[in-house]
Amino acid sequence: MLYDRKQLVLYSLVVLFYSSGAYPGGGGGDLHTCPKSLLHSPYLRTYNGHCYEFKLDGGLSWVEAESACRNHGGHLVSVNSPEERQFLLTTLFSMWFHGDYVLIGLTDSKREGTFVWSSGETTSFMDWAYGQPDQYIHGKKRFLVPIPPVPREEDCVGMRFKDWGHWHDVPCDRPFISPYICEYAPTTHVPTKTTSVTMTPLASTTTPTRHAETSEESIDPPKTTVATVPSTEWVTLGKRGMLSYWHLILNKHN
Fold first, then answer.
1. Residues 6+ apart with CB under 8 A from 141
2. Where residue 10 falls among pLDDT bands split at 50, 70, 90?
3. Claim: this prediction has a pTM higher than 0.70
């Protein structure tokens, strides 16, 4: 991809603006909203609470890309506003993306001419390039011999980076492949419970029988407390945990 001088200047300004953190949602963001199954790589971003995975190496067909996103609980990205579109383009600039198309979740595969998002979201925002969607390959010349336009199914959509991110309809299946962007709704991670928390429901649900009394007598609270304190400090404080452990032992003997 070749840039003229104006494009290079704009490119540099966009990258500097993005990396400075002045752009809302810029940078990696809080990746805790991303699914745990994703690797925390430089290609993850967050915006308005949603997680975006930029898959820019290699490429897949639209159908394959949508399936890959669903495997982690997401969909191909839905672009619902000019601000979200700008966020995506700015991120692509900051990642020094030099490709042509990036697949998004828009498709009219179910009903010709009615484009919907694969996530089921609805929006009035559209950003078609001039003359799009066109549903066919434009005529070309090969060895100075004109080749007429060839009709083909173009029921899916990609942002064309060389056309400043405006949308073009593209085939959904191979041989057309392209990089793509997955979007994931915010994910809530439940913190790991400690031993004391997991023991509570067992004690509260035990019926007052002879077996329950035997079970309660087998628990030694003082020993449980002594064993838990150094173990917890070692995990959370590293080397300081070892110092706390010996300090506890010395105090016990004194």
1. 147
2. low
3. no
